[in-house]
Amino acid sequence: MAITAALVKELRERTGAGMMECKKALVETDGDIELAIENMRKSGQAKAAKKAGRIAAEGVIVIQASDDGKKVAMAEVNCETDFVAKDENFLSFANAVAERVLNSDVADVEELNALPLHEGEDTTVEEARQALVSKIGENMNVRRFIRLESDGQIASYRHGVRIGVLVDLSGGDEELGKDLAMHVAASNPVCVEEKDVPQDLLAKEKEIIEAQAKESGKPDNIIEKMVEGRIRKYLAEITLTGQAFVKDPDTTVGKLLDSTDATVNRFVRFEVGEGIEKKQENFAEEVMAQVRGE
C-alpha cells in the first residue's frame, strides 16, 4: 500500500510522534494505521494516541421522553454540514424521528425507516428523508437510536446538540441522575464497572502496557508490579465507578453512588459523527485527475 502524505499526517495527529517515525511505522505495517499506532504505543513512540474514530460527520443528537419519564429515546441524525444541522426543517425531522422511536418497538434503523414519520400519516421516515434531501440539497441519514425503559429513573443530558447521554439509575434522585449524565458526557467511560470491561480490550491494553514496561529494562519482578499498577490505573480511567467525579475530583463516582445508595444499571452515550471519517476534498488533485483523464 502506498504511504501517502495524508496517511502520515493522520498518524502524526493521532500519536504526536515525528514525521519520520510515523512514516517508518506505516512502512512496517504496510499502511495499516491502527497497527502502526499499537506498535508505536508498545515502543513508547506514541506520546498520546488519540481515540480512534475522529469526530467528522455533522448532525444532531435528539432525546425524547415519555410523560412519566420511564421511557426515553435518543437518536443520531447526520447531515453533511454544520449549517444544515441548524436548519429548522432538518431539526424538525430529527425530533420527529426520535419521537417515532419513543412510540414504537422497532429494533433497527431499517425497521424505523419503514414506519410513518408521524402517526396517522402515510409518508414514511425514509420518504421524508428523501424529500428533505431533495429540498435542502444535502445528504442526510438516521444513523442510530436507543430506547431505554426502566422502573427506576432514566436521567438524560444533552451537551449542545452533539453529545447525548442516558443513564438508567436505581435509587438516588433527579439531581444525582443529571450529575451522572453530565459526568458521562464529559468523561466518556467505556462501561459502568470493572466486570463490564470487554476482555479483548483489556487483553490488548495489557499487552501494550507489558511491552512498554519491558522497554524500561527493569527486573521482571519490578516489571510485574509496574504492569499491575498501570492496569489498575487504566481500569479506573475507563470505568464509570472508578473515575473521579467531575464535580468533586476528590471522590470517585463509585463512592458517590455508595453514599447515596444508588446504582447505575447502564448508560448510553452518543456523540455526533464518532467513528465516521468525513471525506477530505482536494480540489487540486481532482482537477489534475481530470486533466490526466483518470
From TrEMBL:
One of its GO terms (cellular component) is cytoplasm. Residues 81-84 are annotated as: Involved in Mg(2+) ion dislocation from EF-Tu. SUPFAM superfamilies: Elongation factor Ts (EF-Ts), dimerisation domain, UBA-like. Belongs to the EF-Ts family. NCBIfam families: tsf. InterPro entries: EF-Ts_dimer_sf (IPR036402), Transl_elong_EFTs/EF1B (IPR001816), Transl_elong_EFTs/EF1B_dimer (IPR014039), Transl_elong_Ts_CS (IPR018101), UBA-like_sf (IPR009060). The lineage of its organism: Bacteria, Pseudomonadati, Pseudomonadota, Gammaproteobacteria, Chromatiales. One of its GO terms (molecular function) is translation elongation factor activity. Keywords: Cytoplasm, Elongation factor, Protein biosynthesis. Residues 73-274 form the Translation elongation factor EFTs/EF1B dimerisation domain. The keyword Protein biosynthesis applies. Associates with the EF-Tu.GDP complex and induces the exchange of GDP to GTP. It remains bound to the aminoacyl-tRNA.EF-Tu.GTP complex up to the GTP hydrolysis stage on the ribosome. This is Elongation factor Ts. It is found in: Cytoplasm.
